[in-house]
Design goal:
Layout lengths: L6 E4 L2 E5 L2 H8 L4 E7 L2 H8 L3 E2 L7 E9 L4 E8 L8 E2 L2 E2 L9 E6 L3 H17 L1
Antiparallel strand pairs: 1-2, 2-5, 3-9, 4-5, 5-6, 6-9, 7-8
Helix pairs in contact: 2-3
Amino acid sequence: MSKDITSGVWDSGTWEKVEWDFYHQIARKGSSYQGFINARYEDLVAAFGEPRECSDGKVQVEWLIAFYDEAEDRYIPASIYDWKMGGMYWSNGAYYGLTPEMITTWHIGGVSLNAVGCVKSVLAREVRAAA
């Protein structure tokens, strides 16, 4: 059984996994797709801990993260999720049916492209540390 990770450091400060309410508080007007990352599920879990499960039919799992930029004294919200890739998602007459462990391209959401940079920074650090 893996120990769940709930916080860490990144290039400009710290980060922590957060609950839905706080994520939307710092995202203010809502978040949207900002980019993607190619990563194995195992690497994301090693970097950010276990994801939360979703049941909306379009996303199976997601990480909600608040990056705190110490120099700018602000939060950068970021989410990592498997948009329309698995489980019971139905499209074009077929189920996609991928489990999170099979997915290698993940969406990154946020309020700016900074979310993508933050996620990639932490993941790159984790992959280097594991090597």
